Amino acid sequence: MRQLEIALIGAGLIARMHLEAWIGAGASVRVHSLDGRAAELAAEFGAKAVDSLAEALDGADAVDICSPTGTHRDIALAAIAKNVAVVCEKPLAADVTEAEEIVGAAERAGVPVYPAHDIRFAPAFARLHELVAEGRLGAGTVARFTVAGYHPRPWTGHASVESGGILTDQMLHGVDIAYWLFGDVVRVHAHYQGEIAAPAPQGTAAVGTAVLTHASGALSQVVSRWTPTPQPPIRVTYHVSGTGGTIVHDSEWPQEIQVSGGPAGTFGYYGESPFSSEIREFAQALRGGPEPRLVSHDALAAVRITQAAARSAWTGRAVELPVKGAAA
Ligand SMILES: NC(=O)c1ccc[n+]([C@@H]2O[C@H](COP(=O)([O-])OP(=O)(O)OC[C@H]3O[C@@H](n4cnc5c(N)ncnc54)[C@H](O)[C@@H]3O)[C@@H](O)[C@H]2O)c1
Predict the structure, then answer these.
(1) Which atom of ligand 1 is nearest to the CA of 118?
(2) Is any ligand 1 atom within 6 A of the Cβ of residue 196?
(3) CA of 45 to the centre of ligand 1 (A)
(4) What would the pLDDT profile of 81-125 be if each residue is shown by its tens digit?
(5) Less packed terminus of the chain by CB within 10 Å, N or C?
(6) How far is the CA of 9 from the centre of ligand 1 (A)?
(7) Is residue 13 in contact with ligand 1, taking CB distance under 6 Å?
(8) Pick from 116, 150, 168: which residue ends a domain?
(9) CATH code for the domain in which residue 70 is found
(10) pTM for the full model?
């Protein structure tokens, strides 16, 4: 099996999880960051630190962008210009225009873009998708997805008319799951409550919610909350109902989920890290294996929906979205 060469950009919270996963998938990784932490992080996992983006990209099979969202566009375009595949943390870009630029450039160059929406790889969500795809929930689905967690990074705390804050950042997780399960979203109505400051101080508390109307007729509500303290740790839940039954999951309480009276699986918060499953699937695709469960257009759809949520929250009106094609 050929060893993949990965250029990992960033040495923060999320880069650490990706690096561990790439090493687990057998890749050789060069780490580049701007904060002087690359050397320490690389040494911890037997990777190599490099001084520049150009050095990281030189001869790489893929770049893995784990730097702040506002830097994604330039790094992705630099990689695509060198025919280097792109793996990118969520959101793919800071806004729809930048996300479209990345996807357009990648398509013209024939370079794959794999968005790292790790929630699709969390066992409880992957199983939910299987159950919905199998038709176990029947028709007329209504869903609620929630995420709550501490927000320690000032560079995304900021919520303003230009930046959606939690609506375009943390909310993307629930939005992506709703889109994966029920397809295109044609209408978004959102609300935001919290700091409106740039940058927001550490421990900023905020809550956002969006109701999504899917072209299929399904309705999803996504709720996101930034908690002011690191404890309790991140908590995710869902409650999904159709004519065939209801599936409920709460990451706090390992439980067997049931649908239509029959068992459908047991999930806890722990287990294989979704980052490991995600990176393994991307690594297989980069080695010529099957396409991963999400590609560039899924990232674009998620950015379009979250940006519409931000627009809705600031105007107080629902936002209509054109249908851009069916979800994978
Ligand atoms: N999937 C998830 O659940 C999840 C969770 C947290 C963050 N994220 C995403 O991951 C990305 C990074 O977030 P984080 O929390 O790890 O950030 P962080 O602030 O902890 O780390 C950012 C790193 O990027 C480096 N960096 C900044 N600009 C750079 C540049 N131009 N070139 C090279 N390196 C640069 C910094 O030096 C730092 O090492 C963001 O897009 C964020 O939205 C995803």
Answers:
(1) 1
(2) no
(3) 18
(4) 999 999 999 999 989 999 999 999 999 999 999 999 999 999 889
(5) N
(6) 8
(7) yes
(8) 116
(9) 3.40.50.720
(10) 0.94
